[in-house]
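Fold this sequence, please.
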Amino acid sequence: GNMPTFSAPSDKQVWIYGSLTLIPDMVWDVRGEVYFRAFQAGKTILTAGQGFQNYVVFDGSGGEWTLLDGFSTVSYWRGRIFVRSGSLYTNNQTVNAGSIQINCSSPISVFLGASTINITDPYGEFILYDNYAGCLTFNAGTSTIVFQGSENGYLNVNYANAYLHNVVFNS
């Protein structure tokens, strides 16, 4: 069978300018930051159970990414997901991340649908911040945001039109 290996050390960044399709039998050993960069719609991400070991950044004016299956980062502070510009559709998939930061200085759209968002760092954060009024479109759908940490999870919302469907703090 096909068992490719893709690896990168922690001091290297991986930039993906398109869709990403991984397979279960591959070795995905990328320890550095991963940047999804796009300037047009239609990008998809299929992780096939592979996880990310460092920051994951979505960035690109006009870019649009749709998750086709679950998406996971490591459960400590390095496992942050940043949405900086463009549109992210979690597409009813489960997302596991140490923290998530949606912080716009250029247009961002995030649509959670019926996703479960697990914040897995004991001090994890879910930050929803509209730096420039009107640059953020956020639709929680029927999603659930679960703070899994045993310490102090942090929900920071600075967005006039914020609506979160269901938020759970586990201890």
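The chain has no helices and 20 strands. The chain has a mean pLDDT of 92.
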